[in-house]
Amino acid sequence: MKRKEQESEYQKILMERYAPLAKDKLDRTALRALYNDPQEEGYEDEMLEWVKAHPDATFDELLHFDFSFYEPLEIVDDDELEDEED
């Protein structure tokens, strides 16, 4: 994964702990999102605080915490979408 010239403290911790655990394409994609999204979306300080407080967290636990910053995906029937468009 190409890293930025100036990594934040969060990004350094993330890569030190979790890059060796990324075994497949899905893991590497998730790691890339965990690397970039917090800074781009404005919640990197919270992620840094969390990784410092949870030094033994699994990759899945970190992903779960990251997902808490996003609105849940709502799955609706196509019929419901058509009703909303009218």
Description:
- This protein is mainly α and 86 residues long.
- The protein has helices at residues 9-18, 25-41, 44-53, 59-67, 78-85.
- The chain is 63% helix and 0% strand.
- α1 (9-18) packs antiparallel against α2.
- The longest helix is centred in the middle third of the chain and has 17 residues, at 25-41.
- It is elongated, with a radius of gyration of 16 Å.
- The mean pLDDT is 88.
* Beta-strand residue fraction: under 5%
Low-confidence stretches: none
- Which oligomeric state applies? single chain
Fraction in helix: 55-70%
Radius of gyration: 16 Å
Counting H and I runs of at least 4 residues, what is the number of helices?
5
Largest sheet: none
Bulk shape: elongated
Query: What is the first-to-last residue Cα distance?
Result: 46 Å
Q: Could you spell the SSE succession in H and E letters?
A: HHHHH
Give the rounded overall mean pLDDT.
88
Structural class: mainly alpha
Give a short overview.
63% of the residues lie in helices and 0% in strands. The protein is mostly helical.
Topology (elements, then pairings):
Blueprint: H1 9-18, H2 25-41, H3 44-53, H4 59-67, H5 78-85
Helix pairs in contact: 1-2, 1-3
Features:
single chain, 86 residues, mainly alpha, 5 helices, 63% helix, 0% strand, elongated
